[in-house]
Amino acid sequence: MRFQKLIKIFIIVIAIFLSNAYGPKETFSQWYMGGTLHQATGKEWHAATHANKLATCADFIAAWSQNDLLKDQYKPRNNPQRWKPLAEELVTAIDAYYEKKSNLPSTVASVSALVAMIGGWLK
Questions:
Q1: Which of 18, 46, 49, 84 is surrounded by the fewest CB atoms within 10 Å?
Q2: Which domain holds residue 119?
Q3: What is residue 32's predicted lDDT score, i.e. its pLDDT?
Q4: Distance (Å, rounded) from C-alpha 73 to C-alpha 100?
Q5: Number of structural domains, the chain?
């Protein structure tokens, strides 16, 4: 069971990476653009602006949606504005995680996947 969760997290992180590298960028409004913290550490996350954190979290949510990993109630249904509250919640959760565990060598992508799984956002 634990191994299956690790496999799922790994798949989610890979999906996020591939979506950021090859996915369409023009479908997002301005506040979704410019996220650069996907592979950042806790220290880099804490030093970043809120706008960068929010855009990075929007990228994660977009990747989960594009790869059909996001539960239906969180999908944008042609309205990316629906992602903003979820992205804000993800920023807050990642902030809280790194406040307690900033010395761990985990990336923001892996922490976001963990938060999404625990939060019940993923299928």
A1: 49
A2: 1-13+49-123
A3: 79
A4: 30
A5: 1
